[in-house]
Amino acid sequence: MKEVESKKVALVLGSGGARGLAHIGAIEALEERGYTITSIAGCSMGSIIAGMYAAGQIKQAKEWFLSVDKQMILRMMDINLLSHNSLVKGEKIIKELQTIVPDQPIEQLPIPCAIVATDVRSTEEVVFRTGSLFQAVRASISIPLFFEPVQMGDKLLIDGGILDPLPLHVVPRTEGDILVAADISGKDGIPMEKKMNFVQMLDRMSDMQIQQNTMLSLRLTPPDVLASMRQYAYNTFDFDKAEEIIAEGYRIMNEALDRYET
């Protein structure tokens, strides 16, 4: 086993809905093996876990996610009957998360943090390093057509994973750290039906886009450690499988660290 030069980690957490619960297990594996997370970045579901960790509340977040069942998920779906561009307002989920971590300025978090969203109007990535933590998270998780977009000035913000599902280039860096990525939308094949309906085709096209953008990010900014989960290991809304998904995140990060340390 080689001697590891640094145990300081700049951690990047990717998008992927409920698969993002794997980030909790990945963090546990890193800390258990003596690594110190000195900065963090995330988008979409990764932004929630990044914000919770940077605020020092990851254990409380884990307990909350482990309590989630399908009925609780339905209660948090504040249906947006008057909207023409979204199914859900997205305010209830933010209020629930604020019971774990009160809103606070990102720049005042104990650990440097960056959160990524996408501006529909300019078609550009928007990186939050300052300002309201939960306004940034709310923007970053705004799945198109599902959550209502977030209006901020002249920007109309949606899910950060649309352009940058694994934002390796935005994470704050510390001298001597290593870059660690948790990719929860890894490329894999699935058995396809001979005929696909309209919804299945749209879903598959979105998945392909996320996978291609992730691979581009990995080529442009190669991490020192890459833990990867297959995109079809779990569905976007499998939040009632939290314990299983967290365990999988723990497993894939340990395997990635084994490769790095040998």
State the gist of this model.
This protein is an alpha/beta fold and 262 residues long. It has helices at residues 22-32, 45-54, 58-66, 70-75, 91-97, 133-140, 198-220, 242-261; strands at residues 8-13, 36-43, 86-88, 113-119, 124-128, 145-147, 150-152, 155-159, 178-186, 225-230.
N-to-C CA distance: 4 Å
Helix content: 25-40%
Query: What is the residue-averaged pLDDT?
Result: 89
Beta strand count: 10
Kindly provide the radius of gyration, computed on alpha-carbon positions and rounded to a whole number of angstroms.
17 Å
Largest sheet at a glance?
Answer: 8 strands, mixed
Strand percentage: 15-25%
Q: Stretches where pLDDT falls below 50 for ≥5 residues?
A: none
In one word, what is the shape? globular
Tally of helical segments? 8
> What structural class do helix, strand and pairing data support?
alpha/beta
Order of helices and strands: EHEHHHEHEEHEEEEHEH
Describe this structure in words.
Helices cover 36% and strands 21% of the residues. The chain is of the alpha/beta class and 262 residues long. Strands 1, 2, 4, 5, 7, 8, 9 and 10 form an eight-stranded mixed beta sheet that branches. The protein has a two-stranded parallel sheet with strand order 3-6. Helix 1 (22-32) links the parallel strand 1 and strand 2 (36-43). Helix 1 (22-32) packs across helix 8 and helix 2 packs antiparallel against helix 6 (133-140). The chain is globular, with a radius of gyration of 17 Å.
